[in-house]
Amino acid sequence: MASILEVSGLRKSYGNFELNDISFTIQEDCITGFIGANGAGKSTTIYSLLNLVRREAGTITFRGKDISADERLFKDKIGVVFDSSSFYDELTIQEMTSLIAPSYSEWNQRAYQEYLDMFSLQKEHIIGMLSKGMKMKYALALALSHNAELLIMDEPTSGLDPFMRKQFIRILKTYMEAGSRAVFYSTHNTTDLDQSADMLIMIHAGTILFEENKDALLEKFRIVKGDVKLLPGIQPFMLSFDKSNYGFTGITDKAEKIKAAYPEVLIERAAIEDIMLAYIK
Amino acid sequence: MKILISNTSDIPLYQQIKDQIKDAILKEELVENDPLPSIRAFANDLKVSVLTIRRVYEELEQEGFVISQVGIGTFVSASNIELLRDSRRRLVEQKMQDMIQTAKALDITKEELNAMMDILYEEV
User: Fold this and answer.
1) Which of A174, A231, A233, B109 has the most C-beta neighbours closer than 10 Å?
2) Residue ranges per domain, chain B?
3) Does domain B13-76 have CATH number 1.10.10.10?
């Protein structure tokens, strides 16, 4: 499969935080979820690959070309959405858009208007008066209206209600249907990723822990539940576990072995959240 | 075509989907040259990763059930169906052999076995 964006050897440090020569690939036709705890380096990674903060080292290639050779072209081909919007609060939507739209070579006014209608945004609305969800929708409308090939978003769904998150996922999937596109977004809402992501990249303490096909990752891990008496035998097969007076619950990547040796335990599918916690513990 | 994915099953998602497409081809719900959905549309509908569907299509192609044409799509190829039907038949024959051996060990006659089969066949 073709890659759309390759990040290699990205480094950035702030005080005692360091992005440690990280490398990863965003594949074409995939929605890639970027996960990690608060302070793990998600936003720093996104900001530095967009050159919004200066990176100390690292090469970023977009469709095989180093983006620093032609940063304008790169920015023209991507759509970005941030958690804290970078708009002027005192402007109306129309005024703000009239500042932004001319910078894109393929601005599509009709698509933009359709998104405004779909999101019930009106051009007279003053940006400062919009709710968090409406601001996100406005940012999304801008990101989707210039034929971007790659959407890069930093926690676009944080603070949104479940209905809006569902709509957001539906929009991403519709966006992907055109083909030769990709989405890269960070989030804490792992249930959103259960429903939308094809690939997952996890970052922890400035280092990439894994970069994997989501379904394959979910296939690899299982939740194990059983009697505490079995714990001494099973513990070596688990990545992490909790126990109470009534039993233990753990996560394993060796479910087959456990099941063969202890047929009485319960084995269930894990969610992304369980796998994340197992990696960090 | 009906595809149901079980989240409680131990069978991997790609395997579940692949088996059900094969079944649809065997039952002739899908016939020669029928187009399969695009990878993204299919993944969206089944709520699985595009990478899972890609794997399903790749493996079905290796096994000769579909042919994918770059930029056009993936189509059912029925050339292998007889082969698969035969192998499925053999599977049933093997199980019947086991059953007959057990029956003989328990002194169950052929007539009794046939009678049991008649009843069970209607029930299942």
Assistant:
1) A231
2) 13-76, 81-123
3) yes
Q: What is the pLDDT of residues B14-61, one digit of tens each?
A: 999 999 998 888 888 888 899 999 999 999 999 899 999 999 999 999
10-residue mean pLDDT profile of chain A (281 residues): values are 93 90 96 94 93 92 93 94 82 95 95 94 93 89 96 91 91 92 95 93 95 93 94 93 93 93 92 91 75
Q: Which residues of A touch B38 (CB under 8 A)?
A: 177
pTM for the model stands at: 0.84
Instruction: Residues A3-217: name the CATH superfamily.
Output: P-loop containing nucleotide triphosphate hydrolases (3.40.50.300)
- CB nearest to A198's CB, from B10, B12, B49: B49
Q: How far is B84 from chain A (nearest CA, A)?
A: 27
Residues 6+ apart with CB under 8 A from A243: A228, A231, A249
Domain ranges of chain A: 3-217, 221-280
Paired tokens of B123: 């029930």
Cβ of B40 within 8 Å of Cβ of A197? The answer is no
Residue whose token pair is 């990863």: A24
* Region of residue A111 (phi > 0: left; psi between -120 and 50: alpha; otherwise: beta): alpha
| Partner B contacted by A264 (CB < 8 A) | no
- Contact check, Cβ <8 Å, A195/B47: yes
* Lookup: tokens for B29: 């719900």
